[in-house]
Amino acid sequence: MMDKSVFTDKARVPENNDLRDSLGETFSLWLLIREYIHFKYPGAIDEWNYPCEKYGWSFRIKEKKRAIIYLLPRENHFKTAFVFGQKATDLILVSKVSDAIKNELANAKVYAEGRGIRIEIRDELLLKDIIELIDIKLSN
Predict the structure, then answer these.
(1) Cα(13)–Cα(100) distance, rounded to whole angstroms?
(2) Which residues, including other chains, have CB under 8 Å from residue 125's CB and lie 6 or more apart?
(3) Chain centroid offset of residue 59 CA
(4) Residues spanned by the domain of 123
(5) Residue 1: predicted pLDDT
(6) CA 20 to 30 Å from 64, out of 34, 43, 49, 109?
(7) Residue 65 maps to which CATH number?
(8) For residue 82, what is the DSSP state?
(9) What residues form DSSP beta bridges with 82?
(10) How many structural domains are present in the chain?
């Protein structure tokens, strides 16, 4: 099954009402993550991105040119995506982040920009881990 954004119309940038309708109960978690990043890093920039029809719309929050997090809207949930360099990866592997996330990161393919992972958010259970990953990302 193709993992694709719930928003596929290139001509229409998603808005908050679209997100609320599509994400359902996870919309508040999306907002919480976004607000937390802006609190920790007031200079963060929000940006919708449409790389191609295959993936549809995604949302990223970045500092200057570096992406902090990608938020990938799906039906009644969303995914967070991060790319971590080696220094951040080392910090995460000794952090209190869940073993499942550590294992995914440790086994992720290494690219020039780092290791990428995606974490599905369907409820608040992983929110503490996401916050810790954001803190590590912003500290490196």
Answers:
(1) 33
(2) none
(3) 8
(4) 16-139
(5) 47
(6) 109
(7) 3.90.1150
(8) E
(9) 117
(10) 1
Residue 37 lies in a domain: yes
Per-residue pLDDT, 2: 58
- Laid out side by side, the sheet with 114-121 consists of 45-49, 58-63, 66-74, 77-84, 114-121, 110-111
Beta strands in 1-140 (DSSP E): 45-49, 58-63, 66-74, 77-84, 110-111, 114-121
DSSP labels, 10-44: TTS---HHHHHHHHGGGHHHHHHHHHHHHHH-TT-
Tell me which amino acid residue 60 is. Answer: R
Q: CA nearest 61: which of 76, 83, 28, 77? A: 83
What is the distance, to the nearest Å, from the Cα of residue 58 to the centroid of all Cα atoms in its chain? 9
Tell me the C-alpha distance between 58 and 96, whole Å. Answer: 28
In 3-state terms, what secondary structure has residue 73? strand
Tell which residue, 42, 79, 84, has the closest CA to residue 57. 79
Block mean pLDDT (10 aa), the chain, length 140: 81 93 96 97 95 91 93 96 96 97 96 94 96 94
